Amino acid sequence: MPLPQSLRLLLPALLLPLLAACANIDAQTTEYVGVPHAAPTDPASVEVLRSEPLRPHDRLGEVIIDASTDPAPPVDQIEQRLREEAAKIGGEAVVVVFDRIQPMGAYVSGPLWARDVERIEGRKLKGIIIRYR
Description:
Residues 1-23 form the signal peptide. Keywords: Signal. The chain has 133 residues and is of the alpha+beta class. It has one domain. It has helices at residues 5-20, 75-88; strands at 25-31, 47-49, 57-68, 93-109, 116-132.
């Protein structure tokens, strides 16, 4: 049975706020040129570190995470995404070197004589992917 015309028009308007309210995590991984290339590892075994370890290691690449702030994803989801990205290129640990909330964009609304500028903020993380020797 097809939906009535009025319900078909109303349904997207009801679903849009739900879609916009989803926490978001995007990742971009770059593998360095001229370094040892390793087979993928198990994400569960990848460590997330806040300082460079003293053990000898090789830097394999880096990962940049962009995450929403309103709503913000749980920290364990961000850490899991770091582990997954590091595991893809054979990393055994990720050293977080940058983690902050910063402006990611803005939008303007309102009439010409009374414009409002709203900032869009996001969380940005950068991690160096390493493999122990």
